[in-house]
Design goal:
This protein has one domain. 15% of the residues are buried. The protein contains 4 helices and no strands. The C terminus is likely disordered. The longest helix has 32 residues. Helix 1 runs parallel beside helix 3. Helix content is 49%, strand content 0%. With 120 residues, the chain is mostly helical.
């Protein structure tokens, strides 16, 4: 019988003030992109029963960066912004995936709770 040893590591980092500001700005932009992508996806499914693919989300991100209101998105690395849209790829387009209000609240059900039936 093979035993698997699980290990955990804790890391601490202490960013400079400049690094902390850049991290906060990046995380804020990631959150904004995720919320915009989730809203677009929820609207597409609720109104038209259409799926919004990762590629469509990526194209939306490019468009959002070109708007005057969201031009600040172009000032941070595109990798975390793109990955925030990628995180939506496994979220089903049903009301169970978001709050019972069809997504207006933006409350997302845990992915692990949704996948529990598939792991058995």
């Amino acid at each position: 019988m093979v035993r698997t040893v699980k290990r955990a590591f804790k890391y601490h980092f202490y960013p400079t003030d400049v690094q902390a500001a850049e991290l906060a700005r990046t995380f804020g932009c990631v959150r904004k992109v995720y919320n915009l992508a989730l809203a677009a996806r929820t609207e597409a499914w609720t109104l038209r029963q259409e799926r919004v693919t990762y590629h469509a989300t990526s194209a939306m991100l490019t468009g959002w960066k070109k708007t005057e209101d969201l031009a600040f998105l172009a000032e941070v690395s595109s990798v975390p912004l793109t990955l925030s849209g990628f995180a939506l790829r496994s979220l089903p387009e049903t009301k169970s995936a978001v709050g019972g209000d069809g997504g207006a609240s933006g409350d997302v059900v845990s992915h692990s709770a949704q996948r529990s039936d598939h792991r058995r």
